[in-house]
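Crash report, auto-generated. Payload:
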Amino acid sequence: MQSRKIVLALTAGLMSSTVAFAGDVRVMWYSDGVEGEVIQDLLNRFMEQNPDINVILDNVAYQVIQEQLPIELEAGRGPDIARVTNIKTLADHWLDLTPYLADPEYWRTNLGAQFDWMRPDGSEIIPGFMTQLTLTGGFANKTLFEQAGVEIPRPEATWDEWVEAAGKVQDSQQLNAAFAIDRSGHRISAPNVSYGANYIGPDRLPAPVDEGTKTFARKLVEWTESGRMNKDVWVSAAGTTYRAAADDFINAQIAYYYSGSWQVANLSTKIGDAFDWVATGSPCGTVACSGLPGGAALVGIKYTKNPEEVGKVMDYLASEDVVREFTERTLFLPAHKGVIAGEIDFQSDDPNVKAALTAFVKATGQVHENANALPAWKWGTPVYGALVTRISQAMAGELSIDDAFTRIDEDIKAQVAEASK
Amino acid sequence: MSRVSSFLLRRRGGTRWDWTDVFTWFWLIGGFILMFGPAAWLVNSSFKTPAALAEFPPTLLPYVTELVQVDGYDNALPLYEVTDENGDARVLAEVRRIGIVAQMVDPANPQEIIKVSIQDRTPRRTVSFATENYVEPLVANDFLRYLWNSVFVTVMATIITLLTNSMAAFALSKYQFRGRSTVMMLIVATLMVPLSVIIVPLYSVISAMGLFNSLWGVILPTVATPTGVFMLRQYMLTIPDELIDAARMDKASEWQIYWRIVLPLTAPALAVLAIFSVVWRWNDFLWPLIVLSRRELYTLQVGLNTYAGELNVQWHFILAMTVVTMIPVVLVFIFLQRFITTGIAGAGLK
Amino acid sequence: MTAQANTSIARRAGAIIMAPVALLARAFDPPLRMLQKFGGTNVMAAFFLAPNMLIFGVFVLFPLAVNIAYSMTGGNALFLTNREFVGLDQYERLFDCGNYLDRQTCREDLFWTAVWNTSSFVVLQVSLMVGVALVTALVLNRDLKARSFWRAVFFFPVLLSPVVVGLIWRWILQRQGLLNFGLYELGFEPVNWLVERNWAFAAAVGVSVWAHVGFYALILLAGLQAIPKELYEAAEMDGTKPGRVFWRITLPLLMPNLLVVLVLTLIRAVQIFDEVYVLTGGGPGTSTLFLTQYIYEVGFASHLRNPGLASAASILMGLVLIVLTLFQLGIVRRNDRRGGK
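Recovered output after restart:
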């Protein structure tokens, strides 16, 4: 009897997990700010118009997208649509939407600029579209600078000048630290490029750590040791764990925060009226004042059982009106050419927001070609992972910075070797 | 030295307080503070607003800034206590802040704007419990659904654990058959193999069986606990074989012997296992995190994890939902603590 | 004691839990009688074993075997059939060191860092755990009022989930947490507990002791209460010095329980993961990166994912654990033969 019960249980389990009702579309989504609510709203409207398609939004932690989704995909499964940032590395798993779209030409014209970010090298498929473009950049707490009587550095100020200025604020206002950068290899890659780094070797494989990266990494470790950079963020985890420093900025414990455009909505909601803040673009290095472009893409998954429905949902979400509404409500930078060309009325009463978004749009002009090449480069993610793992060890005093560079090269080499097996 | 003796002989040292008494009470009271203090602080913090949580030094009670409705302003304005140049204290409402200067009004005289440096004002605060920390996740974010999933996983896993483990323990304690010691060795050798050791292949097994994203994929791998088999077997060994022989004489079937005689006699050990199983399954984190990626399937522990999202750790929700996940365990504890504690001591091994 | 009350609670609890089984059991009796009639007792034994062993085989033994195969393959594919056989390469990679005394010279320096951290953790945590559990048991064994209340006080954290334990303490130890507030009030400089390497390690040890000590204290308490009073009375009449009583009577008679506790804490300490992962994330740097987290990160989380390497590391860890378990079994067996608990 016992075994029969188990067989029953097993079959019940099997049933519940494999039956995908025709017309069901699952979207795996993560949120930085309010976009989860916005997309749910938009999808509800879609379902009213298309009662035969049931779209289920799975709001998950970012960690799930980073850690579980790749393994699910590896196992040949997954949601039908997902919002991902690790777009290029996983490109083999994306669905070619071309046959399911009403007008592929519309996609190519308006959204085509970023297709290479999300498809395997040399392929011509349409895997999805960018829900937002992002650019890394800094934020300064204007009120703290004012209170300390320190001028906010001019737009072409270098990283050294920024840290010095923020350091003066730190000393005068008794802050924990002068500034912080998110614990992420992606985030420090912009300053690396500004100091002349180029990750991509001549064979499109990762190049060994170069002087550009070394210069900025050395500075970063120095600033951590001198207490200018907030030690907690980078040192408080091992491995590639992502840690954002936004909380410290929101609580006015640092004067300067290097993150990116996607933080605008979050900062606006959380800071409210507590202090004034400004987006500053990216500080300069020796060769550029570059930010790092990127973004989150919404892609179809190859393993879907309902590609027709996926196509319909994607068509709806990529339509100009929907993209515009999404952009205006989430305060994201759009990737849609038509939307960019038209009028965008960002929905926020916060005067800091509009100024910040304008600053980011302006900063896009400063992006260095080496930074521009990174989103469409397959090995970005492993390089970012190695950078963050080893540099944080150097900050914690476990490795000398030079040993860290050697380790980074070895880690990346091992990963390239493993992936080509 | 005789005090050491009384300490060991579990007697209190006469009428006088000697150092062993002092030490005992130091240990007990210190233990009380250390064991309950952190949990109490957690419960306390869970009623604070995000702003209050970010404060240092923290306050004991949850405070929020008082708001007041002022004529001529649509939204309620926050109240501040302001000390002016003459050292007089006034209560003003803040209209807006520009840079380091706050524009304030006297609620009694809303026409006149007063400019105050933000360093000269302190918010006027009142005690208020931020129950929205609880309501919002429970209502808007499906925590009730997670709660149900957790209950389902816990109950099903415990029932299956009790059944399968007790059957296996019965076979291993009351039958002589070839390979018995081999089976026993197998079970015992894996007694301590942690999930992490088999996590990668277990994942592919679950995938291949289609149990991914299914609560059964969470339940099944955990139910054949070696601990349970081992514990129940040790207990069943103490049941006299004569009882079973007598039942066989009365033409009872083996199945009847199992559920009519052995199981009732094993009830204390079963109950200990049941309680443990409930606590284990309720608290499982890593495995459900890996198997479940659909929101409607999340258990409470996995749901908790979603508040540590990309941008910010949302402490106000985490704290409140931690309290929610603690409640059932604490209830089990309050009602069954005497039984649990003596049960463990009796069962000896985990 | 209240053994009888306990039994009756147990009976009642058991009856409730078993109610659905009883119904099913009745329905399934006739076919099972048939099975017994044709198959005999051996078949019945197999029948009773089958469900548990089936689940056990599919979800524990089989993955364990697959894991060994996994550790001899490379690449990033998930399913064994898609993976390339590489022999013992993964093990070689783990053991590839320039100088075995310096883990920084090893190819997988993080693995050896994890091994080193785990070993230090085991030594510190186990000694602290056994010490605190013993003192707690001795204190609880005194003639206390409301002993069951005090026993419960120390046992309470055992029931909390590792995630909850980690979160509670992260909340208290963070830069602006309760502990720093206490220091600040007393006029000390706040300490950044989870960012200073030694403090973070100490926090990991302390928190895991906090979470589990009640369990071991109970096992020791049971041992203390099983020591016959007459022994103490006789010793007192002989005028034996109390220190001697402790060393000559209490400790030897408690030894079986102490050994069980020692081995159990050892095994648990080797596996430490969840609560520390939530508490420190393995940081600062890699100072609280333990073996299980290394395996998890290499197998799942890291951008430098390599499931084969994770399997090889997990098998090495499994070997250590099996040795410890067999050691424990030896102790239990010996106790059984002695007629102890």
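Post-recovery validation: The longest helix of chain B spans residues 315-347.
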